[in-house]
Amino acid sequence: MSGASAVEHEDSGAGRARLVRVSEDRPLWRQGYDVIERQIGPRLDEVIRSEQFAIAIGLIQQGRRSLQQRAERTSRRMLHLANLPAASDVSRLLAEIGELQRQVRELEKQRDKSK
Amino acid sequence: VTTTNPPTDLAARARRDVERSLRRTKNGLKLLSGRFRPSVGLTPKDTVWSFGKVELWRYRSSCRTLSPPLLIVHSLVSRTYVFDLEPGNSFVEFMLDRGFDVYLIEWGSPDEEEAANTLETYCDEHLPTIVDAVKSTSGAAAVTMFAYCFGGVLALLYAAGHPDDGVSALGLMATPVNFGELGAMTTLMRRVEPEDLLDETGNVPSDVIRSSFKLLQPTGTLTSYANLWQHLWNDDFVSSHQLMTQWAMDHIPFPGACFDQVTRLLGRQDLLGSGRVPLGARTVDLKNIRAPLLTVIGEKDQFISPAAAGDVAALVGSTDTEELRLTAGHVGLIAGRSAHKRNLPLIADWLERHSEAQ
User: What is the reported pTM?
Assistant: First the structure.
């Protein structure tokens, strides 16, 4: 295995790109890392591409979402008891603004067509 | 060009190592203090149209020699400054220098207001209005569209759904068409329910997007840190690394309704790969696209592999098609030294061949 490596990158000095090329020996730790990475990388990739991994991610996301919804419901009830708006109320209002914007866009389109 | 070769004698090597150690310490401290944060998107521009968070930028230039104007359509999940990273490393600047009249769509960062945005919002509402705005502000009758990553999906659906809008040429770079070939992303889209990925705003949060991209390169982050540690002595490398890392970590939320649609129609049914996608009340057929088409594919693209980019030319109705297969990764297609030396001239040449002198 060759220990040489080359790095190419930009230098934005004086506002323009300038090529700087650095050739050097790869240090021992880096050669070791590359060997390990070549061994582990494809195996990790295999695991991540597997159906089981996707199912696990799905279950984790479901759990996370369910916890989030429970926390949101609890905090909303408490805030409403004190007659205070919750973040979800603000979210709902923003979503309604978004819907209004869509309607405005639709009306603008109709107006432009009728011109 | 500066070339540093391995020193041959021991004294010189020792001197070099001491120098590098000092620079390592200096750069390490700078990184830790956050002083390496580069400024991006510096090319002067004007906002010529906006609606909500969506803005259309026109870059200033004193040498617009080519027509029609070049409209850049970016993805919905990352920041647009990848097109304008820094002077000398900017797609926008390169195209301005070649005489194009450059426009770019900034989609903005979605929140609750955009959670209900669908593919139709972008392809049937925003893009037609934006193309009209480009035409009216430039005085041109047509537009050349150049789209990157998921922006290419939007551009394809728009061009197929609005074939008479005046898109005179279409460039697609690193655009996923075969969603069944996206590796781990495909498996996740088929196995995870889209609504489980949404946050309280109704969008897919940026950290979920970041994590899903990281999944496509499981050792990528570690390798990136290994590269940084190895070249920490090199000011230019550190600056360049910071620039790319900043962009690669800077994702924006994906509108929930659009994500649901993309997952079901494109991820699970692979309809874009079939060339026919339901959009609004009709099904758009990519065969409706008759404008000259350029597809740019990165052979080392870690996210959109050549298999995922597919054979778009076979799906469209254009007779003038060209495919550029470049030895580059996803970002390396447009940013960095190789891109400016090899890729951008090839892209600009094609665009120029499909433009006219003003």
Answer: 0.85
